[in-house]
What we know:
Radius of gyration of chain A: 21 Å
Helix content of chain A: 25-40%
Order of helices and strands of chain A: HHEHHEHEHEHEHEEEHHHEHEEEHH
Shape of chain A: globular
Oligomer: homodimer
Largest sheet of chain A: 7 strands, mixed
Structural class of chain A: alpha/beta
CATH class of the largest domain in chain A: Alpha Beta
Strand order of the largest sheet of chain A: 2-8-7-6-5-3-4
Strand content of chain A: 5-15%
Number of helices of chain A: 14
Distance between the termini of chain A: 57 Å
Amino acid sequence: xxxxxxxxxxxxxxxxxxxxxxxxxxxxxxxxxxxxxxxxxxxxxxxxxxxxxxxxxxxxxxxxxxxxxxxxxxxxxxxxxxxxxxxxxxxxxxxxxxxxxxxxxxxxxxxxxxxxxxxxxxxxxxxxxxxxxxxxxxxxxxxxxxxxxxxxxxxxxxxxxxxxxxxxxxxxxxxxxxxxxxxxxxxxxxxxxxxxxxxxxxxxxxxxxxxxxxxxxxxxxxxxxxxxxxxxxxxxxxxxxxxxxxxxxxxxxxxxxxxxxxxxxxxxxxxxxxxxxxxxxxxxxxxxxxxxxxxxxxxxxxxxxxxxxxxxxxxxxxxxxxxxxxxxxxxxxxxxxxxxxxxxxxxxxxxxxxxxxxxxxxxxxxxxxxxxxxxxxxxxxxxxxxxxxxxxxxxxxxxxxxxxxxxxxx
Amino acid sequence: xxxxxxxxxxxxxxxxxxxxxxxxxxxxxxxxxxxxxxxxxxxxxxxxxxxxxxxxxxxxxxxxxxxxxxxxxxxxxxxxxxxxxxxxxxxxxxxxxxxxxxxxxxxxxxxxxxxxxxxxxxxxxxxxxxxxxxxxxxxxxxxxxxxxxxxxxxxxxxxxxxxxxxxxxxxxxxxxxxxxxxxxxxxxxxxxxxxxxxxxxxxxxxxxxxxxxxxxxxxxxxxxxxxxxxxxxxxxxxxxxxxxxxxxxxxxxxxxxxxxxxxxxxxxxxxxxxxxxxxxxxxxxxxxxxxxxxxxxxxxxxxxxxxxxxxxxxxxxxxxxxxxxxxxxxxxxxxxxxxxxxxxxxxxxxxxxxxxxxxxxxxxxxxxxxxxxxxxxxxxxxxxxxxxxxxxxxxxxxxxxxxxxxxxxx
Lengths: 410, 410
């Protein structure tokens, strides 16, 4: 039998999905499982987008241009220019989801062995994409103490070698919900210019900023045109994860041309998606106002409930729809599995993502979990109640002084 | 400015699309351009598939399972089992088009530096996918004299090294239209078993076999379960190129599990596509009967017209919707550009793909072009007339005895 590739052996299985068999078992046993583990919003996709699908009137479901249709890219440019990105349609390359945007950007900018520095915890699939491209991820720790703010630039400097080609950020962040400030982005700007690096910016959660905080993109900063590559997707913006429609935005022509060659090889992004994506740009502002109000309510509920629990600390994130909380537990992987396998409260339980899957540094995040607040407030309340009872019952519960002191400081 | 990757430099631009600026110019000059250069069929997508899109009734456009929905994979299995593949739904991994099926299979089976042998001329984008994965393509020449039949196994043997991990075929073939016989597949079977290789089979054109010829897949052969990986797409079968919906089929569990990890990283194939794909499996047989009759008529028209031209030789392919013809010209790249730039007949001209883009061996196919018969018969007749006039007028026309002798032998 021929052997599979080394990459096929080492590429990680999804840390979020590996608990699924235990959730399935819990359900078979009749338990209600609250899914806080995945970033699949329950929010409805805008009607305009769904109607665009229902109203298709073509006879041949044909390839589009590899870079995306002119009409969709033109429309997208108006969306980005409203945000102040100052771009033209030929600086947008439409991709099959944000995932393809990341893979194509990595492969266009980095060769096997090249290094990309990423603040951790980070979106776990970056590891898989890097593995696919032969790129080496250099994690840099951020800390729950300050809500996972940008690590000190001096810490980045320590990691930079002659192999370092890029820094990658996600803001608002998955998994932490942290929203980078303009000051933090200016510090990164100085760093990438000093070392001539690319700055990959995953902005999947751009629309979800709370408490009046303003979203700033590196696209808003002067002097970074050759360095910035924005990776985007409609998945979260329009609650359209199954659309698989994203894009790369860059003003760097060489990067665009290289990315286009990889895009040409795979021929075309989806045609129906681009029709729907074009309609989505016309989604009324009220949609986002309502969605943001809903997410703010949910975040407040979750953060408040968590910080009321003994030994639990949860920073109050400025964006996205995730929190990372520290729990009084010995091991998040064990705990998350135990909650599904051996616990129930009024026949209910909770599925969470152990934060260890979002760290590359061994043991980091061992007592942290990521929760996505993608359930309605009733269900979220019940899920929080379950979690509190689970923490009380968990045999691996540990001393909680640290969390209490973090809460005092926060 | 940071440098793009070496891969980004060397990955080839699409050989089919590089003549586009000349076609655009011809159109701006008011010429009618017959597009024989791309594999985008003009055939209508089955109504059942389009209706499935129009009738979607979900409120949240959500991720599906990374391997594809159970319901689509179950339906697909019935389609493949009708063909005699004897597979289960968990041997199917749904992908974003045939392109992703190829990339994920390559990355799961081959490491950078590993070699895959591919009979040439071959689908040009295999080069780009191999570049993306760091895989080395070892081309093996097939010849127009025998209609691009499988090269002798002894020629394959000469190319096999300790780096050889796979053989890749496409049947019916793009660009040649050649349909591998059961005997040829049995010869390949012995070869891959002898050297413990993977056999990648691109079967995008499976439905398009003519003259009563029977399609055989390596899936039909015993003893190859661990070796065969079928790469499929709905693009050509249902004239749904813009759907970006394909799949990997393999009975090799290790390959499937590795591919699934890469698939998990990119989360999900398109949801609407899978709904439409499920409906497509119910496309009535009459659809394919009509389409095949149409393609047969077109192929006959094109092959006959070409062979009537002085100095032109075109084998009669058994499948797909392409022909590769030998023309009395000095250089196919120059000729195809010249036809667009400097030629017109009754204000019409023709766009073809120089066959050189489908060969890796330097100079191979220098006097060959690929034509896709994806136009109606009226347009095809006019395109053939144009081509004949162009060949008469072309300043780089060369002596044609070879083609005439090939025609005698064929």
